[in-house]
Amino acid sequence: MFSSATRIIAITVLLLSLFIQLAAQTREHEETLQNLKDIDVVVKYGQVNGPEEAWQSNLLQKLEDRARQRLWEAEVPVAQDEAHSGRPRLVFTLNLNREIETAPPVLVTVQAFQRVRLWRDSAKELELATWTQNGVGGPMVSPKMVCDVFDGQIAEFLKSYRAVIQTQSQVPTQALADTPAQLNDTPNTFEGLNGTSVFVSVRRNMFDAAPIVSEKLLQEAAETRLKDAGIKVIRYANEMEQAGNARLYIWVKLSPPNVKTWAPPIDVESRFSQLVRLVRDPKRHSEAVTWKSEDSGPYAKTDNGSPVITDEAVLAVVNKQLDEFIKAFKAATPPPQKAQDTIPAFDVVKIFY
After folding, report:
1. For the chain, how many helices (H) and strands (E)?
2. Cα–chain center distance at 115
3. Number of Cβ atoms within 10 Å of the Cβ of 302
């Protein structure tokens, strides 16, 4: 059994390790922040659980003003007029939770949205998040906690922005020459694909040297389920290029019993990404998420009723996510219709004789 002090330290380390992991994922996409201009700033609510308090009435405007001020002080070119369709957007989404224990009290997500086109199909133009960062805070929802987490996300964006400014090209950007495509918020980004690579990653349990579940088992099960659905599992570099670097990532995050982590026992997050290029600067390309889903599951039980995480319990949630992906993928590529049976002309003649 862990002492209270050990648990507090463990929770702190766990949250910090998650934060670092998320930060590392966004570092790969910093290049897409180069030459950003006239950035719209948006602050909005995501999920809000529990009663609203008086200080929340003007929270969004207060935080938007706070973000604009910090960005202006850092010489980030933020748009000063009303939001304009097609411009880059820096969107802060606030999730506040006072009721459930499987979500952090405060979660702030910041995303840089830009117009992009699929690398493999330039006719598909849409607005996607090309850079994403998350921050969490607790143990309760309070004005100070919200502001602290919010400020941390501004700092993370500025860190990435400054990193690319130092290497930013002075050559003016040029929009895509093939401009007939129109912005579409809901293009079918699966259209034209016949396969994808798939990667299953299990976040290691910090309390044990070995992972709680078998990553190999989950990987093999995912590949088999996709193949059984008629979706090709891509493995080789030349096929990846032809498929526009289509990748299905399945992130499995597990919370050991009796340890408070502000997360469900089993949390599975699916992200399907493809290679895109920026409309404002086609030389800049990156992976971007074009489909996502998330689901969670409970602990299994031992014979004596104790909560436990098992391969079977995790696989059940992973399979639900795979079924969601298969449904979306197959909807874009319906099976060919069977040709209608026709009666040869000479047989028709025979019938009427």
Report:
1. 7, 11
2. 17
3. 10
